[in-house]
């Protein structure tokens, strides 16, 4: 079902709110189910129990692959552009993808993976990452993709939390001019993960890695023994499809669990509508499969829709800052979905990197992951879209599974920096800090959703209570997003950013507590407090205030060590941009750190720090301010 006009959007939206069950059950009919559902929805936000398409039986890969093999087997499913900008690239048709997935499903089975098992995927951006995900889905195993930039410790934590029994990885990964020793990281992680029985290694480089007898095996060796047909496992609509770890306000990342039927229905519906995908379009999303954007809008959404999706292994600035535009011209990309941080970074290189390339095939541009500032929006619109391509500023989260608030291109009147209006089936409300709904337009508050949508989070793996507490307890009866928002006079939503202790660095979610826990591992550190601050390119930067046992003799050296510890504990993406050694932290008498003050200092806005008289030691603020000024 594709909405074609604003009137149609309004009437569809109205129907979706008046009778959500009829609305979604109509959309769900478009898919192949082995057995239809008996009841469309049952829900309870207080005791967190949400089920969609109850009793429905299916396998999502039959909808991603088998259906398309019947109708258009030779259509290209995946175009793969490698890190190196050579003329050679890979095209995989739906038939070929089907065969690869079936073959790898057999490999998993041969290696002892069964329905319901958890399988970790730690891979670079190669088509085999998508094959591995779909092969898991085909046999009914739950995949847990971990972004291949996370450290061995982070990887081990995630494997242990989900008790994965197999991991799929590669020997190395290419990222720009760097070669990352992925398998070495895995080897280190696997020393702490007793549940892992098998490690299947895809050879991306020369394959010169250590292979552990009885545990490790090569992808290419395994597929030689595997058949290209695999009868898909029958899954219940509510069976988990995948786990994806994301950061929250507490120290430990949580495994967001998505289920099969609802996720399938929602990702295809939103993909087709938000990007207005047409039959022969080439669609490119620059995310990594390690994040939810990669799951929903590189793998599942586009393949469910039978689209041609481009997968890119490299980075925007290799071999130069024209790489994105070169790829768009080379593959005649029609729809381009990226993150504000990439746009802001490429803006700084100037237009000479764009002009050599023909971008006339572009029809729709998209933005995701963080608020897009007006300057970046305008630059993207004018320089890349040549003032003729609408930008869809899509707001959503790992937990929502799919896009929630977004314009529909050429349908919704766009407004820079606004995600605009909710998609059909999405019922946002704005509440004040007491959870009271703020009615009307021209208002600001906390963004909540009051009614279930098919691809919403079902639980956090192994800890349902935590999921309830995290998302459904702050405001009774509502899903709380953790975001603040404005609703303007036109009823348009603008997301203003996180209101909890989560920071958004280059579109990556990082919990301040996680970074603090990592920094505190440094032997000389007594305590630390981490806050976000505005950063020109990254959106938010990480600012760490650190108390040491004694003043470091060589502060530069100490800071380097702290960065290394964070890289070791979490990964390079969580490295603080600024580290300030302080003598104390602004604490209340009950020992709580007043982060509000630290945030202000990190922002460089110390004119009005508010009431500091309740602090145990108000003089500490002066010394932190002075230290911060000296760092700038
Ligand atoms: O703060 C919001 C921000 O990213 C958070 C979700 O991060 P994650 O789960 O990693 O998923 C990112 C990709 C969907 C949100 O709570 N965010 C995401 N999209 C936008 C956004 N903030 C403003 N505008 C957006 N379009």
UniProtKB/TrEMBL annotation:
Coiled coil: none
Family per record: Belongs to the ATP-dependent AMP-binding enzyme family.
PANTHER family tied to this protein: ACETYL-COENZYME A SYNTHETASE, ACETYL-COENZYME A SYNTHETASE 1
Record bears the keyword Chaperone: no
Full protein name: Acetate--CoA ligase
Domain Acetyl-coenzyme A synthetase N-terminal positions: 9-64
Keywords, ordered alphabetically: Acetylation, ATP-binding, Ligase, Nucleotide-binding
Species classification: Bacteria, Pseudomonadati, Bacteroidota, Cytophagia, Cytophagales
Keyword Ligase on entry: yes
């Amino acid at each position: 079902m594709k909405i074609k006009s604003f009137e149609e959007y309004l009437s569809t939206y109205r129907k979706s709110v008046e009778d959500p069950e009829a609305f979604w059950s109509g959309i769900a009919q478009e898919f192949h189910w082995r057995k239809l559902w008996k009841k469309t929805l049952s829900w309870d936000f207080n005791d967190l129990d949400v089920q969609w398409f109850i009793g429905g039986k299916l396998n999502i890969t039959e909808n991603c692959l088998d259906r398309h093999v019947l109708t258009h087997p030779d259509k290209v499913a995946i175009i793969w552009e490698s890190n190196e900008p050579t003329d050679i690239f890979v095209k995989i048709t739906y038939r070929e993808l089907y065969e690869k997935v079936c073959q790898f499903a057999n490999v998993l089975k041969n290696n002892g993976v069964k329905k319901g098992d958890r399988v970790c995927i730690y891979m670079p951006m190669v088509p085999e990452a998508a094959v591995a995900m779909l092969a898991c889905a085909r046999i009914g195993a739950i995949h847990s993709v971990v972004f291949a930039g996370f450290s061995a410790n982070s990887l081990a934590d995630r494997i242990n939390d989900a008790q994965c029994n197999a991991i799929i990885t590669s020997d190395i990964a290419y990222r720009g001019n760097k070669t990352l020793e992925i398998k070495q990281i895995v080897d280190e992680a696997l020393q702490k993960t007793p549940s892992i029985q098998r490690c299947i290694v895809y050879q991306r480089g020369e394959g010169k890695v250590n292979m552990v007898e009885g545990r490790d095996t090569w992808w290419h060796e395994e597929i030689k023994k595997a058949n290209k047909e695999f009868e898909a496992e029958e899954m219940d609509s509510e069976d988990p499809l995948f786990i994806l770890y994301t950061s929250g306000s507490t120290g430990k990342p949580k495994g967001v669990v998505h289920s099969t039927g609802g996720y399938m229905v929602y990702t295809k519906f939103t993909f087709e509508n938000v990007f207005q995908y047409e039959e022969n379009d080439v669609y490119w999303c620059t995310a990594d499969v390690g994040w939810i954007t990669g799951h929903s809008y590189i793998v599942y959404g586009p393949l469910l829709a039978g689209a041609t999706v481009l997968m890119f292994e490299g980075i925007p600035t290799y071999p130069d800052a024209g790489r994105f535009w070169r790829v768009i011209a080379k593959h005649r990309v029609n729809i381009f979905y990226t993150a504000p941080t990439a746009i802001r970074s490429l803006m700084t290189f100037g237009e000479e990197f764009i002009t050599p390339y023909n971008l006339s095939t572009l029809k729709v541009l998209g933005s995701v992951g963080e608020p897009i500032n007006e300057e970046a929006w305008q630059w993207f619109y004018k320089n890349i879209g040549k003032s003729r391509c609408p930008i869809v500023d899509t707001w959503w989260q790992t937990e929502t599974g799919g896009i929630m608030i977004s314009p529909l291109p050429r349908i919704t009147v766009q407004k820079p920096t606004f995600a605009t209006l909710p998609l059909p089936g999405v019922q946002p409300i704005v509440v004040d800090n007491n959870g009271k709904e703020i009615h009307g337009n021209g208002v600001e508050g906390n963004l909540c959703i009051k009614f279930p949508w098919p691809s919403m989070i079902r639980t956090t793996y192994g800890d349902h209570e935590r999921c309830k507490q995290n998302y459904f307890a702050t405001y009774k009866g509502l899903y709380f997003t953790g975001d603040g928002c404005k609703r303007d006079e036109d009823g348009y939503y603008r997301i203003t950013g996180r209101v909890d202790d989560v920071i958004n660095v280059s579109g990556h979610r990082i919990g301040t507590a996680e970074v603090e826990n990592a920094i505190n591992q440094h032997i000389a550190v007594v305590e630390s407090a981490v806050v976000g601050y505005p950063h020109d390119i990254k959106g938010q930067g990480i600012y760490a205030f650190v108390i040491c046992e004694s003043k470091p003799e060589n502060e530069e050296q100490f800071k380097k060590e702290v960065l290394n510890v964070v890289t070791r504990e979490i990964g390079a993406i969580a490295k603080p941009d600024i580290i300030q050694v302080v003598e104390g932290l602004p604490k209340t008498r009950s020992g709580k750190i007043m982060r509000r003050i630290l945030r202000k200092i990190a922002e460089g806005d110390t004119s009005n720090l508010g009431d500091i008289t309740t602090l145990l030691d108000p003089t500490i603020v002066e010394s932190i301010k002075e230290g911060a000024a000296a760092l700038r």
